[in-house]
Amino acid sequence: MRKLPEIQAVTFSHQVHGSGSSVAYLQYRRGTSVNHRGDGEKAFLQYRTLSSNIIELEHTVVPETFQGKGIGKLLAEAALEYAIDKKLTVKITCRFVQKYMEKNPKPEFKNVLAC
To answer: Three-class SS string for 47-74?
Structure first.
């Protein structure tokens, strides 16, 4: 198995889908979304815009080939940092991000959470 490239939370890009949800991709230094061996598997965080200043983090997907490498954590951090940067409030319904917040109670992240 090839080693994953070094991951850096360089960009937090998104694509809007017909369901009203968006998918966020963490990108690494080569400027492509996180994938492995060109096989099309991607780690992503799905979110939805609830209003002009509120997003809902719905679901995080990390393919088995990425698990245990900190990719989900990087996606969660990138989403929360994006919310801080854009002055958004975040509603978290994704179980992975909820657990991440319990284990990493950073004040700057807690400040963007919806009550």
So the answer is: EEEEECCEEEEEEEECCCCCCCCCHHHH
